[in-house]
Write a structure and sequence with these properties.
Layout: E1 16-25, E2 31-34, E3 41-44, H1 52-59, E4 66-71, E5 85-89, E6 103-108, E7 111-121, E8 124-128, E9 138-149, H2 152-157
Antiparallel strand pairs: 1-2, 1-3, 1-9, 4-9, 5-8, 6-7, 7-8
């Protein structure tokens, strides 16, 4: 190891491992998702593991701090893009039974994208490639549990090690 490279124990400077509890609500206050009691969500900053607007907020917080924030669609799952809606013939989809609301991945090679079936009209199937929450402003009630410097090993592996993270 070169002199200037951080060891797995030394850490990596500004890149943080962040753990937080949250409740996510959409317009009208409907709860969409929440962390399980005693099991905060953990991510490594800068790797795109959570939506950008929320990551920015959490990195500015201190442990035990609580906040309720609304993240605009463009900083959450993006604005709704009508060009991601398209129609395909039923023969292009898996042979299994399909229903409106079903989600799966389409593509070829190593390029796949998630889609949702939004309409079935005989053999004409309408697919929507937008994230289900695209175009939505999202409100998060968050509590920062812990924030620490990521280790070089965690960065090399792309995930958190230790309590609450991966152990291999």
């Amino acid at each position: 190891m070169a002199k200037n490279e951080p060891s797995a124990k030394q850490g990596t400077g500004n890149i943080q491992v962040v753990s937080f509890d949250y409740v996510l609500t959409a317009k009208g206050g409907k709860v969409i998702d929440a962390s399980a009691k005693g099991k905060p969500l953990i991510f490594i900053s800068g790797l795109g593991q959570i939506i950008p607007g929320l990551e920015t907020i959490l990195l500015a917080m201190e442990p035990a701090q609580k906040k309720t924030v609304t993240i605009e669609a463009k900083e959450a799952y993006g604005t709704y893009d009508a060009s991601l809606i398209y129609k395909v013939d039923r023969s292009k989809l898996p042979a299994q039974e399909i229903n409106v609301g079903d989600m799966f991945e389409v593509g070829e090679g190593d390029r796949f994208s998630p889609v949702t079936i939004t309409a079935i009209n005989g053999d004409e199937i309408t697919l929507d490639g937008n994230h289900p929450l695209a175009g939505e402003d999202l409100t998060f009630a968050v509590e920062l549990v812990e924030k620490r410097v990521a280790t070089a090993e965690e960065l090399a592996h792309g995930h958190v090690h230790g309590a609450g993270g991966c152990h291999h």
